[in-house]
Structures are given as C-alpha cells and as structure tokens.
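Below is a filled-in request sheet from our internal design queue. Each sheet records the structural input a requester submitted and the sequence that came back. We keep these sheets so that new team members can see what a complete request looks like end to end.

REQUESTER: design group, bay 2
PRIORITY: normal
MODE: inverse folding
CHAIN LENGTH: 196
BACKBONE (tokenized):
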C-alpha cells in the first residue's frame, strides 16, 4: 500500500513538472547567437629613444615602461601594462664568448619546441648600425612566442624574449602577438650601440 502511494506521488510530481514546462515555454523562433570575440585594444605605435646608462639604445613605445633589473642595470623589461606583456632584455659584453652567447640564445629559443608547432628563424643584418642577429617566431602555445638577439660581433650582445601574464594560447593572443612582432622589429631596426 505504501509503495502504491509513493508511486502515485511520483507520477503526480512528474505530471506537474511536465505541465509547468509546457506552460512556461512560449513558441518563439530559435535565434542563433552571433560569434563573440573579445576585443583587445592595442596602444598606438608611438616611439621615443630609450635613454638609459647602457651601451645600447632603441626606439621604445611611449605606452610601455623600462623596468631595470635589480641585479644588472643594463638588464630590464620593456613592460606593456595594457597588454600584460613583457619583453625581457639581457645585455652582455661579448669578450671572447660570442660563440657561447649565440649557442645559448639558440638553445633558449629551441627549448620551446616541446609546446611549439614550429619555429621560424629570420636572420637580421643592419650594417649601418652594426647590428646583426636572429629573430625566432615560435608558433603554438609556447611560453615565449618571440625571441631574438642582436650583436655587433665584437663588443655588444642584446637578447630579448617576449612573455605574457596569461596562459599561453596562440589563438586568443594572436592580435597581441602580431602587435608585439611589430614592436620587436622596430626595436631591432632602431637599435644602436653606444661606443664610448
């Protein structure tokens, strides 16, 4: 008897839910939702010369900040607050270590092959400013999508690596990566050594 009463209660409950569902739903046509993409605002490409007491200078975006590393005054970050991006720069005197510096830079770039879909290397030369180097575009969800180095082969060596304060996802970061590619190319093209 108890079993029957409990079954009836369940049946009534289900029936009530069905009736509520039928009354609550109106017959409106189904509207597909448009694709949504978040918009990333990139700052304007406006530049001024970086003025620091280091043996190099380059055009720095006025919407970024130079943050000096506490260990070495010629190591630092070009920080883009609106993009949550940092271009880490390290400077070294070449001395007799050019081969080691070149190998280390290549090794650091190729460490990202674990997460990379591919790495594109582009050689860079600017005899006017005596800057020669390599630009690495690391495709895929790597922690650092762009790395580079510049040198005059005798005295100066400058290495850079781009990082974001977010999970590496190349698809969602694509507009920012494209923007930063332009910034890094401008840096490389405008870089000059201060001799003396």
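RETURNED SEQUENCE:
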């Amino acid at each position: 008897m108890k079993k029957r009463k409990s079954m009836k209660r369940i049946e009534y409950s289900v029936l009530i839910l069905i009736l509520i569902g039928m009354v609550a739903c109106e017959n409106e046509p189904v509207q597909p939702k448009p694709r949504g993409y978040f918009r990333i605002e990139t700052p304007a490409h406006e530049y001024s010369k970086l003025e620091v007491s280091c043996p190099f200078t380059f055009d720095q975006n006025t919407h970024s900040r130079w943050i000096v590393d506490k260990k070495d005054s010629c190591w630092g970050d070009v920080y883009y607050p609106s993009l949550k991006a940092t271009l880490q720069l390290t400077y070294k005197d070449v001395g007799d270590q050019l081969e080691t510096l070149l190998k280390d830079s290549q090794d650091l770039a190729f460490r990202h092959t674990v997460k990379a879909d591919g790495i594109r290397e582009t050689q860079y030369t600017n005899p006017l400013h005596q800057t020669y180097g390599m630009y690495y575009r690391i495709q895929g969800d790597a922690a650092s999508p762009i790395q580079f180095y510049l040198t005059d082969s005798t005295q100066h060596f400058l290495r850079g690596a781009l990082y974001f304060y977010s999970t590496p996802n190349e698809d969602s970061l694509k507009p920012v990566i494209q923007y930063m590619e332009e910034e890094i190319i401008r840096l490389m093209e405008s870089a000059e050594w201060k001799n003396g």
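SHEET NOTES:
- The chain has three helices and eleven strands.
- Helices lie at 2-24, 98-110, 170-190.
FILED BY: M.R.
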